[in-house]
Amino acid sequence: MAVLAVGIMALLFSLDMLLKQHVEENLDSGEEKELVKGKIVIRKVYNRGFMLHALDKRPCLVKSVTAVMGAALAVCNVLLFTGKGRRVEKLGTAIFSAGAYGNIFDRLVRGKVIDYIGFRSKNDFLSRLTVNLADIFIVTGLILSGLGRLLPGAGSRS
């Protein structure tokens, strides 16, 4: 399962990186391209902080916390993926980790996260919200990993 988990992480990480690079090279800031009947749009937004631009005025703190959390995640992944059983939790953690590593890479290498999936809504908050595939991986992975921990016998074989 460890090899499979690393493969899933690598594949999803690469997909997110490719999409971020495409947006970076092909979209101007403020430009939007409509998808899904205009309800979902592709736009380029930079986030120099954490979720919802938290601490974006403190780039050194953001990078430091990001580096520490990235190292802690790597240790947790090694401990989880080399153990027996817990397949659903491992799958969720692999998906979560791919997203986390995508955003960690952006913060540490680019100094900002590239977000590109936006929404059009009557709700102002939703209309301002812009995420990336890594964010979707993080949420999906957390849900799946949590279910794997809560459900008895979920993926008990290694």
Automatic annotation (TrEMBL):
GO CC terms, sorted: membrane
UniProt-listed GO biological process terms: proteolysis
Family classification: Belongs to the peptidase A8 family.
Stretches that traverse the bilayer: 61-81, 129-151
Stated name of the protein: Signal peptidase II
Record lineage: Bacteria, Bacillati, Bacillota, Clostridia, Lachnospirales
Gene Ontology molecular functions: aspartic-type endopeptidase activity
InterPro entries according to UniProt: Peptidase_A8
Keywords assigned: Aspartyl protease, Cell membrane, Hydrolase, Membrane, Protease, Transmembrane, Transmembrane helix
